[in-house]
Amino acid sequence: MQTIQPKNKIWEVIFASSAGTLIEWYDFYIFGSLSLIIAEKFFPASNPTLAYIATLATFAVGFIVRPFGAIVFGRLGDLVGRKYTFLLTLLLMGGATFAIGLVPSYQKIGVFATIIILALRLIQGLALGGEYGGAATYVAEHSPQNQRGYYTSFIQTTATLGLFLSLGVILITRTVMPADSFSAWGWRIPFLLSVFLVIMSYYIRIRLHESPMFTQLKAEGKVAKNPLKESFGNKENLKMVLLALFGATMGQGVVWYTGQFYALSFLQKTMNIEFVQSNVIIAIALLLGTPFFIVFGKLSDKIGRKKIMLAGMLIAAIGYYPIYKAMDNTANISLKTEITSSRLVERSMVTMPDGADARKVIETRFYDDGTKVKETKTTATGSTDTSKIETKQEVSLGMQNVIWLIALIFIQVLFVTLVYGPIAAFLVELFPTHIRYTSMSLPYHLGNGVIGGLLPTVATILVLSTGNHFAGLIYPISIALICFVIGLLFIKEKNVEEPENVEQAVNETV
């Protein structure tokens, strides 16, 4: 039977596991938060749109390799133990993130910069593939059976808090230095700072003991001899892996990335909202929404995991289009009245990256609702080729519109908390203890990492190919609905009050 831990011990476990997982998510997502700058630094500047897509693809690579990390580190976790496996993933993630902050730009070392960034992104993805399953399993195996949703929900907050932390560090760095300095070298600081966070987290984690359920298995000689074979070679367990993927994690994945990363991308690339303002909007919405991970995690202990997760997928699929339409309207200048008497025009000469002289014209227009639109046109001196005119638009919104956007993104974060809050407990309870790390990690990282992680790239391609900037929503809406139907029809709700018998669980799958 499961060993019940004293309450102070459980909170120590939650704190140590959550701190490390938060740092790993910070490391992983800081790349996405700075994708616009990374596109400029590590890819050819001749085609900014293509460079941005290439950056998103590199960002996606980290997600695509996460299932491989789940297999490698999941197997290690079921053979050696939960604690030492997620210590290793923490060090790999921290080292790769720190190294990204040191890589010379494309202008200095050419295509080697792109290759190095891609390799480091692969290491990040592999490390994260082993982290989540270990942390969730470790916390769950220290928790009372009927409170797993509540206690594991603290691990669920770490992904969003990691993104929030990355945005916070970026904003602080950006505001304490001139924009030119941040663009030139200041963007490296958030990557380099991660080394201190990793050292702190490693110190906290190294003091932990192994999971009591794994310790019990080890003492009884019932540790899995071949976790991969026992996880995926057993028909019943493989069926659970597939149901977890197609009936839960892929829907959770697209809802997670739509409500946070795609929302940020939509603000910056489609609506052209100014960098600091867009990040502040997302950060406030995340901060307001984060407590609901715990609310829905705890609620799942009372009414079940399935109902809450499927409700989140369905509501999100129905709500996305009207929400993004409303977001888009806040920056639609055709719906606003310009104050023409306040228009400003600035002209100057600048030097292009290739050394050529260019004319820069900055036109700033003001509108009656507090919106400010700054349009910058840069033209090479003596050139009459309009295709060589570089145009950038930056929109700053008035306070009323900012509050409205925070509310719209907060609603999306609520969708995220519905599907994500209970899912760690759901996955842990789906698989037996001796192969749990391996079995739960793979469907989670396929659904969340690959299907969810590809969302920004797929959505951007859909928008560019159709010319409709709402076309990107087709992907998350479709996946969420498919997952809702499969989960509704084929996943059975588990009785969360039912005690877990470790010996029986082993015998059922061997």
Describe the structure.
Residues 13-495 form the Major facilitator superfamily (MFS) profile domain. One of its GO terms (cellular component) is plasma membrane. It is a multi-pass membrane protein. The protein is built from 22 helices and four strands. The two termini are 18 Å apart. The radius of gyration is 24 Å and the shape is globular. It is of the alpha+beta class and 510 residues long. The chain folds into two domains: 7-331 and 399-509, Up-down Bundle (Growth Hormone, Chain: A); 335-396. Helix 1 packs parallel to helix 5 and helix 15 (291-303) runs antiparallel to helix 16.
What is this structure, in a nutshell?
The protein is an alpha+beta fold and 510 residues long. The chain has helices at residues 7-33, 35-42, 48-64, 66-79, 82-100, 106-109, 111-140, 148-175, 179-186, 188-206, 212-219, 227-232, 235-270, 275-289, 291-303, 305-330, 399-420, 423-430, 436-452, 455-466, 474-490, 502-509, and strands at residues 344-351, 357-366, 372-380, 390-396.
> What integer value in Å does the Rg equal?
24 Å
Summarize the biggest pleated sheet.
Answer: 4 strands, antiparallel
| Topology, number of strands | 4
Please give the CATH architecture of the largest domain. Up-down Bundle
Any idea of the CATH class of the largest domain? Mainly Alpha
Number of separate structural domains: 2
- First-last Cα distance: 18 Å
Taken as a percent bin, the fraction of beta residues is: 5-15%
Strand order of the largest sheet: 1-2-3-4
Shape: globular
From N to C, what is the helix and strand string? Answer: HHHHHHHHHHHHHHHHEEEEHHHHHH
CATH topology of the largest domain: Growth Hormone, Chain: A
Number of helices: 22
Q: Give the low-pLDDT segments.
A: 501-510
Mean pLDDT figure: 84
GO molecular function: transmembrane transporter activity
Membrane topology: Multi-pass membrane protein
Organism: Solitalea agri
Keywords: Cell membrane, Membrane, Transmembrane, Transmembrane helix, Transport
